[in-house]
C-alpha cells in the first residue's frame, strides 16, 4: 500500500511537470509497466484528479483543468524558490501582479512545513530590492506566451517593430527570456521563415492562439544566449545604467546602520558626510530611498540621476501648490 501510494504521488508530480506524457514515458520514469500506469491513472481519476488520455500511438496522458486545483508536489528547494519568487514579484517588471503575489504567498506559507517557513522568513527579512525602471508587461500576456511555448501552440499578434512600424506576426513560440531589464519572446516567424526575437512590451492587443505547431529548438540550444547574440548583432544590446552616487550629510558609521551594504557602498566624506554609491545601476527607487532618510543629500551623478531628481522635485512642488 505504501509503495502504491508513493507511486501515485510520483505520477501526479510528473503530470504537473509537463503538459503531455506517453504511457511508455511514464512507465519508464516510474519503472513499471504500461498496464500499471493505466491502473494508477484510474485511481487518480477516482480521487478527483482530471487526468485526460488520448488513444493511439501518438496518444498520452495529461492533467486536465478541473474544478479544484490539485495539490502541488514541491521538494524543499522548489518550495523556497516559489516563496522567494512571490516575495520579490512586487519589485519586478510585470504589471498588476503585486497583490496577486501577496495572496498566493499567504496561501503557500499556510501549508509550508515549519522548517521551511523559518527559512523563507529569514530570506525575506534579509532581502529587499529596488523597483525596476524597465518596461512593464502584462501578466496575462506573459502567461499566454509561456503556455504556448510549453504546448507548441502557434500564436498571432500585432507587433510594433523598432522603427515604430505596426506589423502582424504569425509565429511558433519557443521560449521566453528575461534579461533583467526587458522580457523577450524567441519564436520562429512563419511568414519570414526564420527565427525572430520579440520584445514582449511591444506586443499590442490580444495574443490569439492558433493551431498546434512544431516544437522547435532555438539555434544553439540556449534561448538566453540566443537573445544576447541577437541584441549584440543588431546593436541593441542592453547597456545597464551606470551606478548612482549621492553625497549624504550623515557620518559614514551612522549611514551604514541604515543602508544595507549589499545594495550600496558607503565612503566617508569628512566627519559629517559620506558618499553612497549603488552596487549596480541606479534607479529612481534609489533616489526616493535616499530622500526618505530625511537627511540633506546632493546628487553627484550620473547626469541622468540628477535630471530624475530635478523632475521629482518639480512634481512634488507642483503637487504641494
Structure description:
The protein is an alpha+beta fold and 321 residues long. Helix content is 41%, strand content 23%. The protein has a five-stranded antiparallel sheet with strand order 8-7-6-5-9. Helix 1 packs across helix 3, helix 2 packs across helix 3 and helix 4 packs parallel to helix 6. The protein starts with a helix and ends with a helix. The model has no long low-confidence stretch (mean pLDDT 81).
Note the topology.
Layout: H1 2-17, H2 23-30, H3 34-46, E1 51-53, E2 61-63, H4 76-88, E3 94-95, H5 98-111, H6 114-126, E4 137-138, H7 139-151, E5 153-160, E6 166-178, E7 183-189, E8 194-199, E9 203-212, H8 223-234, E10 245-248, H9 252-256, E11 264-268, E12 274-278, H10 284-291, E13 297-301, H11 303-320
Parallel strand pairs: 3-4
Antiparallel strand pairs: 1-2, 5-6, 5-9, 6-7, 7-8, 10-12, 10-13, 11-12
Brief account:
Helices cover 41% and strands 23% of the residues.
List the defining traits of the structure above:
321 residues, alpha+beta, five-stranded antiparallel β-sheet, four-stranded antiparallel β-sheet, 13 strands
